[in-house]
Amino acid sequence: MSKNTVDVVLVGGGIMSATLGTLINQVQPDWSIEIFESQAEVATESTNAWNNAGTGHAALCELNYMPEAADGSLSAAKAIDINEQFQLSRQWWSTLVKKGILGTPSSFINATPHMTFVRGESNVDYLRRRYELLKEQPLFSDMEFSDDPAQIAEWAPVLVDRRAKDEVFAATRSESGTDVDFGAVSHQLFDHLVAAGAKLHLNHHIRKVKRVADGTWNVHVRNRSGYGSHIVNAKFVFVGAGGGALQLLQSSKIPEIRGFGGFPISGKFLKTDNPEIVAHHRAKVYGKAAVGAPPMSVPHLDTRIVDGKESILFGPYAGFSPNFLKKGSWWDLPGSIRLHNLGPMIKVGLTQWGLEKYLLGELMASREKQMNTLREYMPAARTADWEMITAGQRVQVMKKDPEKGGILQFGTEVITGADGSIAGLLGASPGASTAVHAMLGVLRKCFPEQYANEWEQVFTEQIPVLATGGLNGDAAAAAASLAETGRVLGLIAETDTPGAVAPVDAQADA
User: Fold this and answer.
1) Sign of the C-alpha dihedral computed for residues 36, 38, 40 and 46 taken in this order
2) pTM confidence score
3) Out of 45-54, 356-365, 407-416, 438-447, which region has the weakest mean confidence (pLDDT)?
4) Which is more confident, 407 or 83?
5) In sequence order, what are the residues at sequence separation of 6 or more whose Cβ sits closer than 8 angstroms to the Cβ of residue 418?
6) Widest CA span of the chain, in angstroms?
7) Which residue of 15, 108, 389, 504 is 20 to 30 Å from 231, comparing CA positions?
8) Shortest CA distance to 133 belongs to which of 172, 170, 90?
9) What Å distances lie between residue 233 and 2, 20, 215, 421, CA to CA?
C-alpha cells in the first residue's frame, strides 16, 4: 500500500473539522492538511441543515441549561457559560466574513427570535423566576417575559391561535437569537481550506488509526469509489466523525478513551413548508421536557432558513437504530462494545429508566399522538400540513463514574491523547454552536507551546473576547460585541441615530 506523510489529518467533513482546519490554517498556513469524508459531499450527517434544528445555542430559550435545583433555586452559571461560548463563534464568523472566507452572512445565519413557552402555573412561576435572574445578565438583557395571551400572540401567533381561553401559559423572547445553517458554514470553510492548499478526499472511509513507533499516526484509508486502500501518516489527527468518532478513537488504543461508550438515538422532526403557516411564525420556541423525560426530548417549534427558504420544524421525536451515523452500519453499536466500557454501559442501562421509557413510548407513538404533541404548542396544526423527516443520529456519551459506575452524558466531550498528537469529539448538543470554543480548546491542549507563544495573539485578534475571558461581566463590552457582530453578520442594521441598532426584520416591518 502507498504511504505519504502530512502535518494534519481531519477525519469527518462536519463543522468541527471545518472549524479546526480553518483555525490551524490561520496560524500555520504552511502545514499540510488532508480531510477525509466517507460520503460524496461534506456536511451530510449531524452538520447538515436538515439533521439538526439550527439553533445557535446561546441558552436564551433552552431550559435544560438552567434546571431547577431540588430546593427550587436557580443558577444562571451554565446558561451564561453556553452563551459566552456562542459569542466566540459570532466574533470569529464576523472576522471571517470581513476576510471574505465566509460569504454573504444570510447564507448561513439569520436573525430569529428565541422564545421559551410553558404551560401550567408551576411552569409559569419557574419561567418568571428564570427571567428575573437572566434579565440582569448583560448577554440576556434583551429578554422579555409575558403571560399575556395578546402579547404572546404578537410574538408568535401560532402558539395562541385556538388555545383554550382558560389555559395558563407564559413565554420569554430574545430578539438576539439566530438560526444557523451549520452545513453552509462547513461548505464555505472547506472551500476556503481547499483553495488554501488543503486536500479534501470525498468517498474515503477511515478504517482505523494506529500509532507508529515515532509517535505519528498511520491513518488507514479505504477509497469507497475506487475500492483501493492506502495509509496516510500524520503528525496530528483529529477525529470529528460524529457518531463514527468513538470506534476510531477506540482503534487508536489511547488510554483516554477507555470506559467510554455510546448509545445511538435517531432524531425525527415534523416539517412544514406551507407558506401560510411559515408566514405566521418567525421564532425558535423551546418548551419544557415532560416529567421524567431526558433533556434531549425538549420540544421546540423552529423557524429554519435553508438556501434562502423558510420552513418550520417541530420535534424532536426519537427513534432507534444501532447505527452510529445516519448512513452507518447496524454493526456500529455492538461493534463499539469493549471490556473496558461494558460495565459503564450496563450500569447506565440499569439506571436510565426514564430514557428507556421515553424511547419505547416514542417508538410506539402513532401519527395522531405525534400530532397531538405538536398541538400542545400549535393548537391549530393540521395533519395534512406536516411531514415527518428523519434527522441525524445522536450518539449519547456513556462513561465511567467513580461513584455511580457509569453515567449518561447529555453534551459533548473532547478526548485528547496525552501527547497531544490525537484528539476527537464525542456527543451531541450544543456541539455545532460551540465549535469554536471546543476547537480552540483542542489546540490549546494539543499544542500548548505554540498556542501560548504564537497562536494566541492571532486568535485574540480574530476573537477579541479571548483577551478578557468573557463578555457577561462587562455590560458595555457585551452590548458592543453584540452590536458589532450583529452588524457584520447582518443580524441588525444601523438606524438614523448614531450608535443605535435595531433588528433587521423590525426595520423591514417599520
Assistant:
1) negative
2) 0.91
3) 356-365
4) 83
5) 254, 255, 256
6) 72
7) 15
8) 172
9) 10, 19, 10, 12
